[in-house]
Amino acid sequence: MGEASILRDRLLPIGTVVLALLALWYVFVVVLNAPFERDTAARAGTTISFAELLPKTMAQERPVLPAPHQVFAELWDTTVNKAITSKRSLVYHAWVTLSATLMGFGMGAVLGILLAIAIVHNRAMDRSLMPWVIASQTIPILAIAPMIIVVLNAVGISGLMPKALISTYLSFFPIVVGMVKGLRSPEQIQLDLMHTYNASATQTFWKLRWPSSMPYLFTSLKVAIAISLVGAIVGELPTGAVAGLGARLLAGSYYGQTVQIWAALFMAAAVAALLVIVVGFAHTLVLKRMGARA
Amino acid sequence: MNLSILLSAIVFWLAAWAFNEWLVRQRFLNPAANRAARIAVPLIFGATILVLWEGIVRGFNVPSVLLPPPSMIWARLISSVPTLWADFRQTFLKSVITGYALGCGLGFLVAILIDRSPFLQKGLLPLGNFVSALPVIGVAPIMVMWFGFDWQSKVAVVVIMTFFPMLVNTVSGLAATSHMERDLMRTYAADWFQTLVKLRLPAAWPFIFNALKINSTLALIGAIVAEFFGTPIVGMGFRISTEVGRMNVDMVWAEIAVAAVAGSAFYGAVALIERIVTFWHPSVRGGQA
């Protein structure tokens, strides 16, 4: 029953949808790329039959929509066939983005947790800071990204740090909100128990509040790491397309290299999936060590 | 370095902080005064940040290329209202609103359509959750290539960004009713449509509004970032990226202020409608949305 239900409930439906999407993709490849082939044929003074057209739409150099196999060939070519130190290697660019993401995420997590602790323990902080933390989520922070990059460059800070700062800015909000909720999640009766033990605020924090906030922390960490990747990618746009996945996207859009854009997109998706899975894995590990049921 | 300005800003900060500390400890007998104090505390905090910002920038003589003082940004905002309005119309009224309505509407419709097929739900939901974690903003260059430089390409980006959160939230909202309630509808001999309209949609509103709120932020971000990849010579994202290049940082900040106000107002409007529609929900009845 166990294996069969995984097959029936997950693999089969997801597989079907993925296959359907792939098929739809191929249909769109033909539809979107056909005008170009017809144009070339008309310019050469010939007409082209559908049977001739079909393979040609899938092998254009700069297609409107590259076929999936072209994207995967590009992915394979730029990850496996190139040395990882080469500027043509997608692994190199992914690493540039990933390091900025992780640095920003780390700083954002520390900052967010510290801020949440301050908010929980100080009423004035809670009343004055919390509305702004929530309001700031409604502001398109990413719009400031180019300015932060340029301004920090002017002061002499360049490279990893400006991108990491944007990631920090984006990732610390969900962590603050989640952690405040988590640190407040112990019930009054539990807090009263700590009180009868004559526990100090520090002891209450480490033995009750901190452990009970873990599920909230990891949920917001997952959100935070996903948007800190977005922050790092957007942060790479205004630097003039030097290195990183965002730079690949921008360079691809300047030179019309659609296959390169799609390959960078898939790489970004893979990195995002990897990061979320790692955080999810850490979540299970921590919960298990805390003695929660699997 | 101008010590007196710096000092007065710091004095103002300490005074406002002390006043806030005092204010949160007060218990007013009059409920209206209590509510006023609740609102005053964050407002004072915001004002303090502005004063401190102004004081530090003026006190240390920070070059305005790095960080202009709020007063300078305000002056720039007032003097360039026509430009800002044109940008606002291009980015917000054309791209964001259209894309938001289309994306949320499509997500909602698809969720209703796949509602009767558990197979499709099982297939689409994990994918939708997965896509929500992806840097979807990366499709912006492709959309600009397909739909041209004008607002249509921005609408496409916004639609893609807002579609999946709406889909995922609506599907889980439609599943939020318990067996007991659905059985009751069955005993009333309600058909699928009646159950949907009278039971499951009302129960799904909190989830749907959650998606609407998330999407209001995403839509603005999507439209602005998509403009970094190519746009006609108007639009908030365009203005930000070109004025940064020309080191007109005060104009950038003015644009950001407009974006912030627009984003907050958009979010606030959705939250207000949520309070009206889901008046029965515990989080609204408790008095805090």
From TrEMBL, chain A:
Full protein name: ABC transporter permease
Organism: Shinella curvata
Transmembrane portions of the chain: 12-32, 95-120, 132-152, 216-241, 261-287
Family to which the UniProt record says this protein belongs: Belongs to the binding-protein-dependent transport system permease family.
Keyword Transmembrane helix: yes
Localisation: Cell membrane
Signal peptide coordinates: none
Pfam families tied to this protein: BPD_transp_1
This protein's record includes keyword Transmembrane: yes
Domain ABC transmembrane type-1 residue range list: 94-287
Keyword annotations: Cell membrane, Membrane, Transmembrane, Transmembrane helix, Transport
Mode of membrane association: Multi-pass membrane protein
Automatic annotation (TrEMBL), chain B:
Transmembrane parts of this sequence: 34-53, 97-115, 127-149, 155-176, 218-240, 252-273
Membrane topology reported for the UniProt record: Multi-pass membrane protein
UniProt keyword annotations, A-Z: Cell membrane, Membrane, Transmembrane, Transmembrane helix, Transport
UniProt keyword Membrane, yes or no: yes
Any Pfam family matching the protein: BPD_transp_1
Protein name: ABC transporter permease
Domain ABC transmembrane type-1: 105-275
